[in-house]
Amino acid sequence: MRYNERELLSLARQPAEKAAEIRMRVPKKGSVLKKRLVKLVVNFLFYFRTDEAEPIGALLLERCRITKEEENVFSISFIEEPERKYCFECATEEQCQEWVEALKKASYEFLRRSLIFYRNEIQKMTGKDPLEQYGISEEARFQLGAHGQ
Amino acid sequence: MKLNERSLAFYATCDSPADNSGFLYKRGERHTAYHRRWFVLKGNMLFYFEERDSREPVGVIVLEGCNVELCDSAEGFAFAIRFGGTKSRTYVLAAESQAAMESWVKSLSRASFDYMRVVVRELEKQLQEMRSGLVGGCGGSLEPPGPWKPKPSELEQSRERLPALPAIPPKENGCAVWNNALGADRLPDASGCGGHDEEENPRPPPLPPRRRVSNGEAASARAIVESPSTFCRLHEKYSREVARLRQDWQQRQR
């Protein structure tokens, strides 16, 4: 699949929501835990060799499942292939929990659900649609009941 | 750089509703011929397929940090997705109608994760402010008891001598204004506002106890949320003080 790699590389250089050195294992036969710089930017998780400027890879965090595994460990898998897990071993349990929390909220779909929720709450309280000021109140993607909400 | 392409392809073709979809002409990178492709916008990802029923996208354009502009192109209904950066590519697309073009330009220019995040944070803030505002009220009347109204000059005086209160900025519901205007003691003969320190200087009133907010998100709203009973008590206290002072003042005028 073609993609705009230059822009994605540029995104990987942006300030991250979260970044840390974490040991990571990809779901490939025979792969082992390796220390990586892991960086969360918008709904992408980039991972770098610790001394390199360009990421080895990127995971788009949509339709994924973040699972707390054993102590200090969490995994990312995608809905269609739940057995293929990207494993992350953190330095501490606390760090692990923080990443799990952050990654669960890192998808566009999560943002969309949040927007619909807040919109609805505000509308209930004020009788007014807070999205009107943005001129996006009619967009299908923000309707209550859209996207399986 | 590796991308989780399989998951990407699943995301593109799964039955989750698209934010926009339709045929667009895409200008090639090397050869400037246009190719008709089926485009599907999901979140900040613009996928394009060879055919509408293709099982896998030909490619995807990640829509972070881009601008969407109309084109002067000879092809009608053309628009461009332009990225910053020196060697960045510009994607030129053309719709098949004016309406389609406008619809695409609108949805693409608001497709970024960043944009969504800004809107969500704004709404979250609005909701928190609304909820704090509700709790800060007394439930009952916000007016001071009796016919007392602050004389403009008195109010001005007291405002000038207010110490910088970090807590409550003036709000529409009047509660915080009331507090700010009189809370800090600076009426000339104020003696009973919240007690004195050792040198008999009137102290600013005690801050009401911090109410623990129920959910984690509201912790970021650092406004002091007062429990109704504490507020009402303080309210009563000050209004009695003020009524007394007003009486004194009026008597001295005679």
From TrEMBL, chain A:
Residues 15-108 form the PH domain. PROSITE patterns: PH_DOMAIN (PS50003). GO terms for biological process: endosome organization; receptor recycling; retrograde transport, endosome to Golgi. It holds the Pfam family PH. InterPro entries: Boi1/Boi2-like, PH-like_dom_sf, PH_domain. Gene3D superfamilies: Pleckstrin-homology domain (PH domain)/Phosphotyrosine-binding domain (PTB). It comes from the Eukaryota. SMART domains: PH (SM00233). One of its GO terms (cellular component) is trans-Golgi network. PANTHER family: PLECKSTRIN HOMOLOGY DOMAIN-CONTAINING FAMILY J MEMBER 1 (PTHR22902:SF9), SESQUIPEDALIAN (PTHR22902). This is Pleckstrin homology domain-containing family J member 1. The gene is Plekhj1.
TrEMBL record, chain B:
Residues 136-159, 188-222 are annotated as: Disordered. It comes from the Eukaryota. This is Sesquipedalian. The gene is Pheta1. Plays a role in endocytic trafficking. Required for receptor recycling from endosomes, both to the trans-Golgi network and the plasma membrane. One of its GO terms (cellular component) is trans-Golgi network. Residues 17-113 form the PH domain. The keyword Phosphoprotein applies. The keyword Lyase does not apply. Keywords: Cytoplasmic vesicle, Endosome, Golgi apparatus, Phosphoprotein. InterPro entries: Boi1/Boi2-like, PH-like_dom_sf, PH_domain.
